[in-house]
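Q: My labmate handed me this sequence with no annotations at all. I'd like to see what the chain might look like in three dimensions before we decide whether it's worth expressing. Could you predict it?
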Amino acid sequence: MEKQPYYIAIANGEIQSQPDVAPWNFRVFANEKEIQSLRELLNSMNREDFGSFWRAHIPIVPYHEDKNNDQYDRYIMALYDKIYELGDEDARGHIKKMRNNV
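A: Here is what I predict for the chain of 102 residues:
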């Protein structure tokens, strides 16, 4: 399968095939199967984020004891790992810097 460039916007969970459609954070080169994997991660993050929204209204449950937040954190780490794997030089460099600052 031939790889095509795609443009990923983390905050709104969008994957575009054209760079001028919307603002984006990372450019990756992926085939359809790899893009589907990225979409699944973004959708899973969105689902867990929505779940943590409800927890946020219960002040007695701390962030670090929330299953939705824990799962969201796992998904976002997996997403950045996948972007690092598929990303262009700029994407890999940015993620490498992020990891060094942790």
